[in-house]
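$ run holo --ligand "molybdenum atom" --emit tokens
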Amino acid sequence: MLIKKPSDMSPSEITDKELYLNRREFIAKTAIAIGGAAVSGIKITTDANAGQKLNVTKRGHFAEGEKETPFKHAANYNNFYEFSTNKEDVAELSRNFRTRPWTVSVEGHVKKPRVYDIDEIIKAFPLEERIYRFRCVEAWSMVLPWVGFPLGDFIKICEPLSNAKYVEFTTLYNPKQMPGQQRNVLEWPYVEGLRIDEALNPLTILALGMYGEVLPNQNGAPLRLVVPWKYGFKNIKSIVKIRFVEDMPISSWMKASHQEYGFYANVNPSVPHPRWSQSEERRLGEFLKIKTLMFNGYAEQAADMYKGMDLRKYF
Ligand SMILES: Nc1nc2c(c(=O)[nH]1)N[C@H]1C(S)=C(S)[C@@H](COP(=O)(O)O)O[C@H]1N2
Ligand SMILES: [Mo]
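-- output --
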């Protein structure tokens, strides 16, 4: 990574962030030089944005009374097939992933199709911290403080047209940077979708951080979806495209195995996955299993959207 030395820059160019990053690099290099025990506990990463503190203006606890999952679990046990199908390898393999420059393209049935620079999006919205339960279809779960803003606020500025019934999201395709894309474990790029009312639901957020800091690459930097009443796989990472469409998008997981992964993927303890039960889950870092809640505990905010639908059929 190229970082200008402070002496090469005019004072006006030296932002707080650069000072912070230079200091971080210095600390990391010193730690490497000293070696041994001194290194432990210092996160060394070449992603220029990792670890950067975010300015949160509002906080909400949406898993009242529950203990936050420690950062080390959330950042070292990841499903991100673009890097690896091994959850413990993703953090290391995504270390050099470049999240700048980065654009998000808004397409389809909208009044304002446009390509946004990621930093422009980040600056446009006040950042909120939201502590949500998060449950993977594989029956592990977490309680995680995300930082982001409501997807609905972003959708409003795109001005969807009346035939925008669904929103389709796409992850970056770059097999050089994402070694998992060199294998056909899924159809690339990763695609996910929401019905427009699900996308506009106030619980749905675009996240750019967690635990008060910029998202680690392995958790979907620079921008990912968080829909807390749905299984983990709906929460698409490293988004480069948001398209407003008339027909239901076919997600990568539906293509891979439509009997196992439906479009809705609402957390539902009474509808088992074909190969295992969904009635229980285990929080990362904890030993005992707990009962899985309908809509992951967010029935009050989510259930109305599915009134009259057979949730065994629309799983
Ligand atoms: N692009 C992309 N997004 C993805 C995935 C993926 O493989 N690729 N995995 C999904 C699955 S199965 C889960 S459980 C969550 C995991 O998010 P986390 O690593 O932040 O816990 O990301 C989801 N988003
Ligand atoms: Mo998952």
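-- notes --
The chain has one domain: 18-306.
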